[in-house]
Amino acid sequence: MKMECAVVADNVAAPLPGRCAYFVERKKRYCKMVVGGGKAYCGEHANADAGSDRKRISCPLDDKHTVYEDSLAKHLKKCNSKEKPKPLYYVKDINAGPDWDKNAVSDKVSLADYSREDMEQLLQKLKLAVKGLSLPHRESICTHPALHDALNDPKNGDFACKHLKQQASIVGNMASLDLLGSRRCVVEFGAGRGKLSHWIRTALQEAQDVHFLLVERSTTRFKVDGKNKGRDCTFERMQVDIQHLDLNLALRCLLERSSWSEDKDEEDSKDDVDDELPLRKRERGEGQAVADGGVIGVQGSPWQPLVIGVSIALCCHHRCDWRHYVGQSFFREQGLGAAEFQAFQRMSSWATCGMSRASHLHQGAAESRANHSHQGVTESSGGTERPHAPEEEEQEGESVPDSLNSMSVQERELIGRLCKRLIDEGRVCYLRGRGLEAELSCYTRTDISMENVLLTAVTRSGHTGATHAP
User: Fold this and answer.
1) Rounded to the nearest 5°, which phi and psi values hold at 109?
2) Calculated CA dihedral for residues 299, 304, 306, 310, nearest 10 degrees
3) pTM of the predicted model over 0.85
4) Which of 205, 221, 284, 452 is spaced 20 to 30 A from 337 at the CA atom?
5) What is the pLDDT of residues 155-184, one digit of tens each?
C-alpha cells in the first residue's frame, strides 16, 4: 500500500509518522529512518535533538556511521568495521607483483589528454603488437547434462537463462578437457554465490573425494554452498582478496579440515577435540603427505599442489593493473611497457561500452523525429511524446578522446577488441611458460554476453614439475 505524506507550506514533504524529523538538505527531503518510541530523530541524527542529553560521535573505525559517546567502548567490540584477525592463508601482497615495480607507472594520464599524434602512435603500436594474433577466437560453445533441467525450467527468465548458458558452457569445456573427475580439488576465484561450483558438483555426482575451495573477497548473500556439502564433497569458502591469498596454505587448510572432520566423525566420543585443529599453522618448509589424486600432490619440501587445468571467463580488462599483470614479459618483447598497458587497458572498455547500441538508438530516434516533422506533427502538451534518450551501458568505460571523433563506432569497438586480445595474449604466454597448454576461445554468443572469451589451460605432457601453484 502506498503511503501518503502531508505537505507543508514550502512544498516540502513532512516526515511520515514514526519516521525521523531530520531534513536532509542534500536530498531535499526528510530522513526516512524509523525512530524509537517517544523520539523525534533516528540514531544517526540524534544530535539534532536539542532536548537529548546523550551525544553521538563518529565511529573511529568507520566515520560513515555514528554511535553514542557513552556507549563507544561497547560498540567497538561488535562494530562490523572492526578489523578481523587475518587467517593463516593471508599473506599481504603475495600475488600483487614485485615491490620494485610499485612506481613503474607514473600518474595516470586520461585518454582525453592524448594529442592526435600521440594517439596515432599508440594505435600504430597496438596494430604491430597484435599482428599475427588470431581474431576472432575459435568457437567452443558447449553445454552439459547437469544443467539440462535448469535450462528448460520455465521459472527461469531470460536473465537467469543467460547465466545458466554461460555456466553450462564453462562446465562443458572443463569436461571436454578432462578436468572433471574423482579425487579433484576445484578452486573458484570470484565465487560470488558459488553457482558455478554448484553446477560442477552436480556434474560430479558419481565422483568421489572431491573438494571445493571458493574464494570471494566480499560478503555474499544467498550462497548455495550448503546445498552441496556431503560425505564425499567438501565445500570451503574463504573471504580474502586474491592479491593476498597464499593458495598453498589455503589448500592445506582445506584438506586438513576435511581429514580432521572424517577423524572426528569416527571419534565423536572424544570431548577434548580442538575445533581450531584444522587451521593450525605449519612451517613453510614442512612436507606433509596428503591424498594425491593428480590435482593435489606433494613434491618434496615445501609442500606444493599440482595444477592440472585452468578455466577463466575473461572480463573487465579495464580494471587490470600493470603491477598485477602476469604478461609483463610479453609486453616488453613487443616493445611496450607500463604506459602503453595503461592506455590499452582503458581503451579495452570501448569493445563493450555500448556505443554501437547507443548509436542505433540515437539514429532511430532521429529518424522518428524526422518522420514526424515530415508528416507535419508538432510537439505540444497533447502532441507526440519525444523518445527517451538511451541510457549508457558501460559502467566504468573510458570516454573517447576528441582526436578519435572522426572514427566510426565500429572502428573504436575493434580497437577495444584488439586491446583485450593483446592483454589476454600476455596471459596465455605466461601460462605456456609455466608448462601449460593454453588457449583462448569463444564460449558463448555475444547476444548472451559481450565478454565471451574463455581462457583454458591444461597440463602439458612431460612438464608436470612446472605446474606447481605459484
Assistant:
1) -105, 130
2) -160
3) no
4) 452
5) 999 999 999 999 999 999 999 999 999 988
